Amino acid sequence: MTWLAPWFLAGGVLAALAVVGAHLLARHRPPRATLPTARFVPASKPVSSTRLSPPSDRALLALRALACLLVAAAFARPVLAPRGGSLARVVVLDRSHAVGDHAAAAAAARAELRAGDLLVLFDSAAGAPLEGAAAQGALASLPSTPVAGSLSAGLAAAMRAGAALRTRADSVELVVVSPFAAAEHDAATMRLRDAWPGRVRLVDVAPRSDSLPPATVLLRAAADDPLRATIVLAGLEGDEATANRRLVRARASAGDSAWVRAGTGRVLVEWPADSASAAEWRRERADSMGGVVARGAAVVAPFARTRRPPAGRAVARWADGEPMATETPLGEGCVRRVALDLPASGDLVLRPAMQRLLRALTGPCALPGEDAIALPSRGNEHASIERAGAAASSRALARLVGRDGGDSPLAPWLLAFGALLLVVELFVRDRARQVPA
Predict the structure, then answer these.
(1) One domain, residues 257 and 347
(2) What tens digit of pLDDT does each residue of 406-429 get?
(3) DSSP at 277
(4) What b/e sequence results for 189-208 when a residue is b if at least 16 CB atoms lie within 10 Å of its CB, and e otherwise?
(5) Is the overall model pTM greater than 0.85, yes or no?
(6) Is residue 37 part of a domain?
């Protein structure tokens, strides 16, 4: 028999010893007797021998001690049959757009897989765990999906697969095969990684290198537009002949749309300089917001929020999660609309954070499943921590009573018998208190 949590046995033995000690230390007063006369009371202090009587209520003592031991044995989670193997693995393979060579990634995953291991494929979402011939067949014809990857989705699926392997292995190892691109991380990635109870190994594969030329931006704006300095500092300045990004500080024209359709991977950024040039974007109620984020590039500053971009895929968000910039496909490229009012004064456009934000807003068109990561507000962050803590507590309680995949089928029975003995102890105690007439 194997005990999955043997330290509970020691606690049960100590509790049973405490019950026995308390029982032996109990004292009973002798019955009172009325003396008929004072003649028989000796003048000196009486000395008499006392006979040591054996402990009484032995049945009550046995029930209490046995109940303590049974409850402790239930929480120690006994396993009668030995497990099938000492170590099992959950191999998580990235098949997203971020992987440079999918054949090499499949070969790396195949080298980690053994009999009884599980394979999880993920991009923006994760599939069902595969085992044996199904896993080998999936690796032989690994599909290359043009979708952005999410490490959180892969780790969440691995948690579910690991719960299934715990019934037949002493320990479960997590192996992640991925290029670990920065765009694949989000706020939940490290929380899920820390929640894995065993060993984690990372197998790094080559990332995808885009064949597109570097981004160069042609700015169509007034000569004193503040974004002109940001583009120069970011090294994105281009001319009419070479630019593959076009940033328009007014409403885009039909010629701009035709320019996007005429090439591959071109991006048109429609970023009106004032509210007058985008009257239909005006918010019902203007307010202020303390930050924006786009593809990991964040700028923290007191922005006035007076506009809302048209409907589309969100590529940048305000700090409260509301979209700040949206994108719609157009031909082989896309049109990006930005609703950000720049301050009239200050050095915000000269800061490195603003240069990173501009690179993100003029970056390549988003892949399916790709979205900006919102800056979490304090309340949202606390709520996510509470949800993670509640989930961890539920998993711990399930492991404790053996209901997280059948770790210990004897634990519920032992717990039930311990509770039954405590109920019987109540009746025995009431019976022992009854004094015959």
Answers:
(1) yes
(2) 456 778 888 888 888 888 888 887
(3) G
(4) bebbbeebebeeeebebebe
(5) no
(6) no
